[in-house]
Specification:
The chain has one domain. The protein contains 2 helices and no strands. By secondary structure, it is an all-alpha fold. This is Iron dependent repressor metal binding and dimerisation domain-containing protein.
């Protein structure tokens, strides 16, 4: 998602880890389901 928006891969990976720990489990689950559908 972040790399598709133009964020470099290293920064995207770091930010994704931060996002994973800052949002609710429910939001994370929904984001993951949404991303899985795109693959």
């Amino acid at each position: 998602m972040l790399t598709e928006a133009g964020v470099d891969p290293k920064t995207a990976e770091q930010d994704a880890c931060r996002m994973e720990h800052m949002i609710s489990e429910n939001s994370f689950r929904h984001l993951k389901q949404s991303m899985d559908k795109k693959e």
